[in-house]
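User: I'm new to structure prediction. If I give you an amino acid sequence, what do you actually give back? Let's try with this one:
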Amino acid sequence: MTFSTKLEWGLAPNRLTRLLTEKRRAGDAILDLSESNPTRAGLQYPLEIAASFGGKEVLRYEPDPRGSTAARQAVSRYYAARGFSAEPSQILLTASTSEAYAYLFKLLCNPGDEVLAPRPSYPLFEFLAKMESVSIRQYPLAYHGGWGIDLAALEQALNDRTRAIVVVNPNNPTGSFLKKREIEVLERLCVTRGLTLISDEVFSDYAFAPDAERVAMAAAVEDCLTFSLSGLSKVAGLPQMKLGWIVAGGPEAMRRQALEGLEWIADTYLSVSTPVQSAAAEFLRLGEEVASQIRARTARNLASARTCLAGCAGEILPVEGGWYIVIRVPATRTEEEWALELVERDNVLLQPGFFYDFDAEAFLVASLLTHPADFDEGLRRLRLRL
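Assistant: Good question. You get back a string of structure tokens that encode the predicted 3D arrangement of the chain. For your 386 residues, that looks like this:
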């Protein structure tokens, strides 16, 4: 049997995965400092969330490709509470942010076209793009005491096959936000080159401090077609509820045409379930209690990490928001060797930087969502290795 080359990803487990499997089979308790699933992080979820599916409307199937009006109104209110205008007519619901990317790649690209995506970043774009016969070309984030887009390198990466530029705001894992000066350049490039801007904003509610230069919602731009992506997974700590959304921004005629195309795509799949849509308003309301716990947890763990690693060879790079920190460790060995040794000798799991396409050594990535007791003990063991 021959399958599509879209699936040729090399699915054999890497050395770190094999070692973790061996350790766990042997009964070792691993301190997992990569935990990013809020439902496994010891948070307290309101029991009312489980009762939110109880309305009679879940017994009727009246599909709307853009998502039910009530659910889109709930998303619109979510943005209004944050000072942004996103009318229900600008919103299209998806089952996840990953699906939102798939829809947008279908909308914007023909086979062989390219999309620019940041490096380092979450290693999902290449998988999603390949499934749509689209190529990812990376542009670098530069670090000079803080992270920022290398705008010159981004512009050099553009070519005749480029259809869109993806930004992750804030970036995962660097925690850096898009700045106003950067989006001005990106908007100009998109206008002059006929490109679309896609902004992944799933972590935008988790800033550690205010910053007047920060861009919170890219779809507020006016001159180029722009899409802001988010969903319940992060904003409400509810990844299991499978509801994401696309907010379209930019010139009205262009935005309307894009949403018509997205509606055709969504109508082909109709993937968002009726119960989730009917409960969306409650999920967003109750999810704020979960999000508040996440903000407290990530702030607490960030402060603890800074205290624990102060004065040692492990440097926490500046972080503005999100759920992760990047720790620069001595390049006396590779990131993989650091990660393997920490698991083998200390039963501590951190992710090596190359998982996120860092282009230099040596970085380790830790999740600030980790239970505080595990987080503190894991970093204590890391410090002893430094």
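You can read the tokens as a compact description of the fold. Here is one thing that stands out. The CA atoms of residues 187 and 224 lie 6 Å apart.
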